[in-house]
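Q: Got a minute? One more chain.
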Amino acid sequence: MASFPPINPVYPSPPEWLQESASHVWLPYAQMQTVPMTLPAVKTEGVRITLEDGRELIDGVSSWWTAAHGYNHPHIRDAVTKQLEQMPHIMLGGFAHEPAFRLAKRLADILPGDLNHTFFSESGSVSVEIAMKIAVQYWINQGARGRHHFVSFRGGYHGDTLGTMAVCDPDEGMHTLFKGVIPEHLLTDIPRGAEGEAAFDQFLKTHAHEVAAVVMEPLVQGAGGMIFHPPETLQIIRRCCDRHNVLLIVDEIFTGFGRTGTLFACHQADIVPDIMTLSKALTGGTMALATTTARAHVFEAFLSDDPGKALMHGPTYTGNPLACAAANAALDLFEKEPRLEQAARIEAQLKRELEPARAVKGVQDVRVLGAIGVIEVDDLKDTEWLKRRFIEEGVWVRPFANIIYTTPPLVIEEADLRTLTDAVLRVLAEWAQK
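A: Always. Here it is, folded:
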């Protein structure tokens, strides 16, 4: 067996529990023979992660974009504690419980248009697969067989399961190994402007007879490289889908709950998708939960005297009461605390404080939207060196592809955000000289 963990320049003396058990854990997105910089975390609070040796890191990525309200918010913690004492879990097949049913109603009240029928699952990838399954069966239930392909966009990312890999950009790096195993769907450029609309319209006209749905991330293609597009692009895609009778699935797993400056990115384009997926910040970064919500006309295609037209899907922990209690508490915070105002303040500060990066050698672009700040470089060399230096500066930032980015918790204070941006600029300047 390979030795593990390897020498960690940031944490040379890991605690006993990590040394004894590290070889038994298969970590995400990691080459397990090397696995650099596995840090033992022992506590989270607000925007800070505390390591076993007492060091604190300001979290610049919100634990993969989940901790919108910061860590250990007392309102969410109290709601989960109360639910744990009362009923941590019960199957949703045959039973109803208040946390899930109340959450579904609350989502119907705040989501765009008539998105008002929610199916619960445990992860973002699964919620997208459920959306795809719903889209295919929507057409089958209406006698339109053969519409089982999906249109997705270059730069897009929707998850790592076999089904969702098939609607990610096949050249973005993580999924090329599976070519020939995953289904091949239809890939095109995301449309921009009149010329882009004409091209996309023709694309759908050619393929509509075989397409179940278009799948997209609104305003920001996240894990594909934080690629931005304007609200007009969403309007173009919605118009073209309507014109050719194609369903539109919008993946708001990353963009939902204030990250782009509005509660949902779709609000900025004033469009209503046929199906929307949510996860990540849904529970404020506390519990695994995801939702797939459909409009009325989609839901009604499953209503029939024929049992075979029902949606035959049911994860064991679907509608888990603990997770739904956390999500309800997280929604309370969007109602009671000024999250969107905080996102606007973060946006203004990021624009101001990241702008000097444009003058650094190797920087191609600096872009900001809501609580998302991105520095794009020509070649992200020495990624592990960058991660190590950020830790030494007391911040948690994880560059990938060709970007250095930050998506801080929406509750981050001005001083902590300045510490974060100062560290990014300082490390970036050192990196440019390497």
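A: The chain is about 35% helix and 15% strand.
Q: Perfect, thanks.
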